[in-house]
Predict the 3D structure of the following.
Amino acid sequence: MARALELAARGWGRVAPNPLVGAVIVRDGVAVGEGWHTEYGQPHAEAEALRAAGEAARGATAYVTLEPCSHFAKTPPCTDGLLAAGVRRVVFAAHDPNPRAAGGGEVLRAAGVEVLGGVMEAEARDQNALFFHAHSNSARPFVALKLALTLDGRIADHAGSSVWITGEGARAEVHRLRAGFDAVAVGSGTALADDPRLTVRGPVEPRVPPTRVVFDRTLRLPLASRLVGTAREVPVTVVAGSDPPAESAAALGLHGVRVLVSTGIHDGLLALRESGIGSVFVEGGAKLASALLNADVVDRLYLFYAPLFLGPGGVGAFAELDTVEIGAAHRWRRLRTETFGADTLITLARHTGG
Ligand code: AOF
Ligand code: ZN
């Protein structure tokens, strides 16, 4: 199953809004076929692994990271494929939250296949957190917050310069992460200070380029910014406050920028979801990061720590967080620690599956 999860990860950036899924067919203790969901609309992981295994699948065990589907949609049901191939046993990680496709476990069991579900389920749910969120009853997008920090929690020096905190490896990882989200967002302060592009320029080319989002209550985003200048190539959405300056809204609209009106951060997220954005990768700055954390709407944290200090004059990432007593503070769940050159990435989840 660990191998199947590894394979599933290869679909990052290519399969959303469908899930990352991996599968391994094992016979007599030997992997005879591997597969993963490579591309939205293409064959499911099980079908790929069965194709690779061929006749060797007869009497074998299939390990799949998601309960095999039982529905006809873009592709025929994987339950049919597994039965036709003569697989004797199916082990899956997470139960399918998609009501249209779920129930494959029962279908297989009724057909005489030995079925075991829930193996490495937590890992599988963490890997597919965006998919599980989309099938939850939450009305807002999945929110990930990424920050590049110094050891003393600064995201910029006293002059506001932030570009060189983390190194090249960490920056490449940020681009890889961006590719898996529907949107990449910053606050207006960061948009003004850095004039970012927020495009994906890394190891994974996203199937659909993420929408660039700016949380910009009073529509300060300059028409001359790189974001506005490229809004017709890769979409830009601005989340404004409830009464944005009409002239700015009209001018942004003329440049191809979508302006959403909101009464606050939570409402802004709902508006994004209504506009079709199921997941947002937020990259700061400090004000937006604190606002999201204070509103308790961050599902996942990607904290890149670079080995330097900038001192109290630097811009603190968390300066505007609400103060809480130690007994009441929420403890995040660590998913991973990884290193990228001199930098360390700590990935944390808010909830189970977050
Ligand atoms: C995938 N890839 O490897 C597996 C999936 O829209 P469809 O027809 O491709 O079906 C999507 C559903 O199928 C998905 O929501 C999930 O419930 C199930 N399994 N989907 O895209 C896969 N195994
Ligand atoms: Zn399937």
Notes: The chain has a mean pLDDT of 96. Residues 15, 18-19, 21, 37, 44-46, 66, 69, 73-75, 78, 96, 98, 101 surround AOF (ligand 1) (CB under 6 Å). The radius of gyration is 22 Å. DSSP finds twelve helices and 16 strands in the chain.
